[in-house]
Specification:
203 residues; 0% strand; globular; Lipoprotein
């Protein structure tokens, strides 16, 4: 009797693992389809491609949500100007779901700022970004890391003078706290198209 229970348990475990694998494969397939439609949009500027990509992403029900799925979802909603939908999507996650404690607020503020900008309210939009810069800087002071440094300048480039920012990043380079390639990548972002520099981008 004891061996029969163990045998049944092993069969159930194998079945669960098999279902989990199939579900994961389905999620990956849907993500690839969504990503390909997003790439097609970058070539054609067709919002239909974005709508189709969003449909694929909305069909993904794997838990936990993979970072690549989350970020692509944000990017698509932002490009579709579905700012309210983007906010609700971010709000559906807990702060503990993010690696850094400022991340959820960063994404929320990005959509809130877009809503304000669409109404012509750049004053309050800029205030949101200033608050976000302070949040990221406080986190960086205690937890120096490359990703948060990138996030900091991703936001700074929207509301601050580029020459001032370049001086700041060169000062950081001289501190030797980060590798040169990290600083170079940030400078590359800062010196990109000026119009793109004035909007938030999801990476």
């Amino acid at each position: 009797m004891h061996y029969r229970i163990i045998y049944i348990f092993i069969l159930l475990l194998a079945l669960l693992l098999s279902c989990s694998k199939k579900n994961s494969e389905k999620c990956n397939s849907l993500y690839e389809k969504a990503f390909n439609r997003w790439l097609q949009y970058s070539l054609t500027d067709s919002t239909l491609c974005l709508e189709e990509a969003k449909q694929y992403l909305d069909s993904i029900d794997c838990k936990p949500v993979k970072r690549k799925v989350f970020e692509l979802n944000l990017s698509i909603r932002y490009l579709l100007k579905d700012y309210e939908g983007g906010k609700k999507y971010v709000e559906s996650f807990n702060s503990s779901d993010f690696a850094a404690n400022y991340k959820k607020d960063m994404y929320l503020k990005a959509f809130e700022a877009a809503i304000l900008e669409s109404k012509g309210d750049t004053v309050n939009r800029n205030q949101l970004f200033k608050e976000l810069i302070n949040e990221i800087q406080l986190y960086l002071n205690k937890n120096p890391n490359e990703e948060s440094l990138y996030d900091l300048f991703l936001v700074k480039r929207i509301i601050e003078d580029r020459n001032k920012i370049l001086k700041e990043i060169e000062h950081i380079r001289s501190s030797k706290q980060y590798e040169d390639k990290v600083i170079d990548n940030i400078i590359l972002m800062l010196t990109a198209n000026n119009d793109e520099n004035k909007t938030f981008t999801f990476n």
